[in-house]
Design goal:
The protein is an alpha/beta fold. Helices cover 27% and strands 24% of the residues. The structure holds beta-D-glucopyranose. The site of beta-D-glucopyranose has 10 residues, from loops.
């Protein structure tokens, strides 16, 4: 079968190649790939900056934002042939650490977790893949191709849950939320916050293209420019850019008792000690919490599935701005300014 593979930590090694059919040890449920979303992590792996091949292998099958159709449910599963499914990304570490022991692998403490398409387990960019039934999530069939947005939605389901948990430390009734970055994660965060009844603001650097209208059609307010110029103090900020300046400004702009949740992974070197003290002082004097959030456990996959199922399909459709065939996967790894979510499509939903 055809698969998109890469030799992790070696730039320029991504290719479409023939590999053997999926190993039955990877799971009893056999799935035919429909589509796989591409995100910044995939681009980093293809650029040789991140990723780990399975033990004993040189190459890793890419892809962690899956959508597929069950071809063979196997013996011990409740799935039926034809069901639309997505695969959970992370697997608990084998020790296991206390978090993984209770199913909270997203909070793994020893870093020995594995992740499909990222860390030591093959991903979903192959014509067929296998999965353990307990790590497959059924997708509302009316979502069709939009089910490919489920994985990024899990990241947001977890992030918003973190913000809500933190809010319980004191009397806190959030009204306004600012989302920085109108990429797929930011727009899904805006959607989720809107569904929770909040007043939503989205900030991005672009002034034209599809993003401002997508934000406005959600009933949210679009801002471009600096976080410090938005004109109000948000109760919560969901930071989805990973850009140092945006993060620093968010920490200055957040309202008293508010939470800044960081979901973007950026690079930028060491912050000076003085700048760090200023950031800390702003947080101390306003009782702020700055929390990082990564990955998602089964509860978040369940919540994300429900959230997407309730969302407006026409609005969700606008998030998928480009579909590429597997043979053009290199094009899927390139970003154009108007791209939101680019997917590699293997078959029809
Ligand atoms: C994925 C997460 C993963 C993280 C770090 C993200 O792109 O969505 O599932 O935990 O990368 O590897």
């Amino acid at each position: 079968m055809k698969a998109i593979t890469v030799e992790p930590r070696k730039p320029g090694t991504a290719r479409l190649e023939d590999i053997p059919e999926p190993d039955p040890r990877e799971g009893s449920v056999l799935v035919e790939a429909i589509a796989v979303g591409v995100c910044g992590t995939d681009v980093e792996i293809a650029e040789g900056k991140y990723g780990w091949a399975p033990p004993g292998a040189d190459r890793l099958v890419l892809g962690h934002e899956s959508l597929g159709r069950v071809i063979d449910p196997g013996l011990a599963s409740s799935f039926k042939k034809g069901d639309l499914v997505v695969g959970i990304v992370r697997r608990p570490d084998p020790v296991p650490c206390p978090s993984c022991a209770v199913g909270e692998w997203d909070m793994c403490r020893n870093g020995k977790y594995t992740e499909r398409g990222i860390k030591e387990i093959h991903g979903f960019m192959s014509e067929r893949w296998r999965i353990e039934p307990e790590y497959a999530i059924k997708v509302d069939p009316t979502l069709g191709i939009l089910g490919v947005l489920l994985e990024p939605t899990t990241v947001i389901a977890k992030a918003l849950e973190q913000v809500a948990f933190i809010g319980r430390r004191s009397f806190w009734e959030p009204r306004t939320v600012l989302v920085t970055g109108a990429g797929p994660i930011g727009l899904l965060a805006a959607l989720a916050a809107k569904m929770y009844g909040l007043e939503v603001h989205v900030l991005d650097r672009v002034e034209d293209g599809p993003k401002p209208a997508i934000v406005r059609d959600l009933g949210a307010t679009y801002h471009s420019g600096s976080v410090t110029a938005i004109g109000f103090e948000p109760d919560a900020i969901i930071e989805c850019t990973g850009v140092g300046k945006v993060i620093a400004d968010s920490i200055q702009a957040i309202g008293a008792s508010g939470t800044v949740c960081l979901t973007g992974v950026g690079h930028g070197g060491i912050v000076s000690a003085a700048a760090c003290a200023d950031i800390a002082a702003a947080s101390v004097l306003k009782n702020n919490v700055i929390v990082g959030s990564v990955n998602a456990n089964k509860r978040h996959w369940y919540k994300a599935g429900n959230l997407l199922a309730r969302a407006d399909r026409n609005w969700l459709c606008r998030l998928i701005t480009r579909r590429e065939r597997p043979e053009n996967f290199m094009r899927a790894l390139e970003r154009t300014p108007d791209d939101i979510k680019v997917i590699v499509q293997f078959s029809e939903p």
